[in-house]
Specification:
Blueprint: H1 2-21, H2 28-32, H3 52-56, H4 64-78, H5 88-109
Length: about 110
């Protein structure tokens, strides 16, 4: 019974990871504007990861300690070693998310 609960929790966590890496689907991008290209994602700071504050989930102007705590929490959650036995595809997704988190942390702690 406990194994099934742990498996269900792991699947739910992996679902959240993959959903956070997928681009949001907008009605315009789904064919609502005939022939127009889909809107480009926001690239604040010239990086594809977007806003570093949003990536770490902290409000703008958060203290260094708050940023560090959020970074550590996200790294624990999305580290590729946590999904090492679940296949290469999920490891790649986790690796990309980890890199995004690291870039955001580096940007905010410079």
């Amino acid at each position: 019974m406990i194994r099934w609960l742990l498996l269900a929790a792991l699947i739910a966590a992996l679902w959240r990871v993959t959903r956070s890496l997928l681009p949001a689907v907008r009605p315009e991008a789904a064919g609502g504007t005939h022939g127009a290209p889909p809107p480009r994602p926001s690239r604040e700071g010239g990086r594809p990861g977007g806003d570093a504050w949003a990536v770490l989930g902290v409000p703008r102007g958060a203290t260094r300690e708050e940023v560090t705590a959020a970074y550590r929490d996200l790294m624990k959650r999305y580290h590729p070693d946590r999904v090492a036995d679940l296949g290469d595809e999920l490891q790649q997704v986790a690796h990309e998310k980890t890199l995004q988190i690291q870039r955001a942390y580096d940007e905010l702690t410079r």
